TrEMBL record:
This is Helix-turn-helix transcriptional regulator. Transmembrane segments: none annotated. It holds the Pfam family Peptidase_S24. Residues 12-21 have a biased composition (Basic and acidic residues). CDD domains: Peptidase_S24_S26. Residues 95-198 form the Peptidase S24/S26A/S26B/S26C domain. Gene3D superfamilies: lambda repressor-like DNA-binding domains, Umud Fragment, subunit A. InterPro entries: Lambda_DNA-bd_dom_sf, LexA/Signal_pep-like_sf, Peptidase_S24_S26A/B/C. It comes from the Bacteria. The lineage of its organism: Bacteria, Pseudomonadati, Pseudomonadota, Alphaproteobacteria, Caulobacterales. Residues 1-21 are annotated as: Disordered.
Amino acid sequence: MASAESRGTARRSPDDLGRSERLRRARIDAGFASALAAAEAHGWNRNTYKSNENGNAPFSYRMAEAYGAAFGVRPEWLYAGTGAAREDGRAAMVPIIGRVGANPDGSVLLSTGQEGLELTPVPPGGSGKAVALRVVGESMRGLADDGALIYFEDQRTPPTPDMLGQVVVVETDTDEVLVKRLVRGSKAGVYSLESLDAPVRADVRLRWAAHITAIVPPFHARRITTWAGA
């Protein structure tokens, strides 16, 4: 028999999940490092707000008005994704979730918590699932220099044929997140991963892969990056 949690997940619609993701982004952009911090600051029931943000309990338009007023976004956008997020034209922000190029093996060092969260504007064409990685060091020279930002959509979907031959972000079945060129493997279900300055990793099984949607050079990356709560 399915658990209550799995039954609840099965009932979630794409609209519900998009709504909860917009709420999470609005909360982060407003400078609240966690759902608990936002709920306590505004006197909301902590469990209710957490369920609204993770999609287990879709919130009403009335609550979208309350959340929108608290986070500085339009309730129409928060509830249905309609129009701009803000009246004042401020860019929506997304988190910088880790560093790439800092390890010799090319793996991404992911942030483990929300404290000191860095934020950067959503790139052109980006969605509420956009995230960014900061390049550290010179191992990705020719693609992205030290200090650059690499954006991708954090959708956690399997590789697609149009990714072959492209530099993408991937997660392996051994829990590594990497930025590599994706090449067809020796058999179905595996891929080879090419680096700019490291040996090819052959026949790797992947959990997901994501296209790089934008690369921002270091000078501009420094200008557009801010800290949550700043």
